[in-house]
Amino acid sequence: MGKVRVKSPEKVDTTPWLIKQFSGTTPHQNYFKNMRFPRHSLIHRGAVLNKNKYRLRASSCPNIYRVSMTTLTKDDDEPWYSGLIKFVSLFDEFHYLLMSASTVLLFAWFMTPYFYLVDHMTASGYEEHEASLVLSAIGVANTLGMIFFGWAGDQTWTNVTKTYGVCMILCGACCSAIFLATANYTLLNIFGVLYGVFLASSFSFTPIVLVELLPLETFTKAYGLQLMCQGIGHLGGPPFAALLADLTGTWSYSFHLAGVWIVISGLLMLIIPYTKNRKLIGTGPVEKELANE
């Protein structure tokens, strides 16, 4: 009788997936085989079907499908300004208008410490390098704050809109406190660091709030309009703060006014989770409701 070969059991690779990515070995041909993506992820092949304007087209093979996008013919009789009206139509929604007003106020005034803190500190008797250190502390704290709030925004226990509003209120309070703590260099640095941390929530939370307020297919337009609001704020705020200092001979009004308007910016954001979104002009469903139909 011939010898019977006993097949040895296959070895199961128990190496964690994350460690494999940093190993020096060449990735296997089935590199993405065991990676799981959420069905609503942009990477998932069926994610494109979540958008209403895409439809399936029949194919002879059951596991292969093609996606086509439906388009509407443009009416030649439409006035020239119809495209502009469609572009800014999001401002007709109550919640988006609140967020846009909050963005304009925030970006009009949050640059006041960045632009004029050095002038204020040197006028108060500090050396220029001491003022530069405070600005550096604000910048480092702002960077670390973006990382923290970016992580916190992905957690289920975080209400992003409420957290954003509270952070803006605290940011405005710290802006005024920076001026009040001018005589104490240690307190000045502490309030500067807190100012940078709370301000970071704006950069980390803005895209998340937009996705909560609007459907994904309008995100590009919505975020572009928010960038426009940021630019409008930048154009008006810093020059007015400098003009106010020239007229009054002190930076106190500029810093305190900046703090007040940043607090108002946070209060506008806090209105959103406690109210229902609706059209301001006319009637009808908002974009989020249309996407869910």
CATH class assignment: Mainly Alpha
Strand percent estimate: under 5%
Provide the structure class.
mainly alpha
Might you state the CATH topology name?
Answer: Growth Hormone, Chain: A
Helix content: 55-70%
Number of domains: 1
Largest sheet: 2 strands, antiparallel
- Helix and strand pattern: HEEHHHHHHHHH
Cα radius of gyration in angstroms: 27 Å
Spatial strand arrangement across the major sheet: 1-2
Distance between the termini: 72 Å
**Tally of DSSP β-strands:** 2
- C-alpha geometry: globular
Average per-residue pLDDT, rounded, comes to: 81
CATH superfamily: MFS general substrate transporter like domains
Topology:
Layout lengths: L16 H6 L31 E4 L8 E4 L12 H6 L6 H16 L2 H12 L4 H25 L7 H21 L4 H29 L5 H30 L3 H20 L15 H6 L1
Antiparallel strand pairs: 1-2
Tell me about this structure.
It is a multi-pass membrane protein. One of its GO terms (cellular component) is membrane. It is found in: Membrane. InterPro entries: MFS, MFS_dom, MFS_trans_sf, Proton-linked_MCT. The protein has 293 residues and is mainly α. It has one domain: MFS general substrate transporter like domains (Growth Hormone, Chain: A, Up-down Bundle). It is built from ten helices and two strands. A hairpin with an 8-residue loop joins strand 1 and strand 2.
